[in-house]
Design goal:
alpha+beta, GMP Synthetase, Chain A, domain 3, 3 strands, 12% strand
Length: 188
């Protein structure tokens, strides 16, 4: 009798111990660092147009959006803040006397008046320094146009004033895109 009672107690304890060890965690596999999984909701075969063909760079933009890189400046408030910070950062360069900037989308237009003692003009070195500052302010800025042309500086100033006065973002962006078409854009 004692033996039967002991075996029954031992069996009950073993059953309880094994039940207590079962996992209540989610049965879905977890993603560990360095491991990537494809989402069943996102298509894995997005067409890429790299030749500027019928789709232009739409495939690249879709890919960036799906990968979470949609970090362009898309609101008037963000654009105005980035423009002010970029202007201040560019004016700190020893080559620059005054500056005005407009940052919209992934592009920044920067107008400068260079100090009289600087003879280099707007060259790749100066543009590189401005792009570095622009990307430090907002990582979504990937191209810039820097000019010392008085007419272009006036147009950039006009765009900045539009941002400050509360003009619709789409209007400012459209005007900036039109102005950028006639300028040399610098990318790294």
């Amino acid at each position: 009798m004692k033996r039967t009672l002991f075996l029954l107690l031992l069996t009950t304890m073993a059953a309880l111990a094994l039940t207590g060890c079962s996992s209540s965690a989610d049965t879905q596999p977890s993603v560990s660092p360095g491991m990537t999984t494809a989402s069943p909701l996102l298509p894995s075969n997005i067409p890429q147009a790299t030749d500027g063909g019928l789709l232009g760079d739409l495939g690249e933009k879709l890919d960036d959006t799906l990968n979470g890189r949609d970090d362009a400046l898309t609101t008037s408030e963000d654009a105005l803040k980035a423009s002010q910070e970029l202007r201040d950062a560019v004016q700190k360069l020893t080559e620059v006397d005054t500056a005005v900037a407009v940052a919209v989308g992934n592009t920044a237009l920067v107008g400068v008046k260079l100090v009289d003692s600087y003879r280099g003009g707007v060259d790749d070195r100066l543009q590189g320094m401005v792009l570095d500052r622009a990307q430090a302010i907002h990582p979504g800025i990937d191209e810039i146009a820097v000019t010392a042309d008085e007419k272009a500086v006036e147009e950039i100033t006009s765009l900045y004033d539009m941002l400050r006065s509360g003009s619709p973002y789409t209007t400012v962006k459209a005007n900036a895109d039109t102005l950028a078409e006639g300028m040399d854009l610098y990318k790294k």
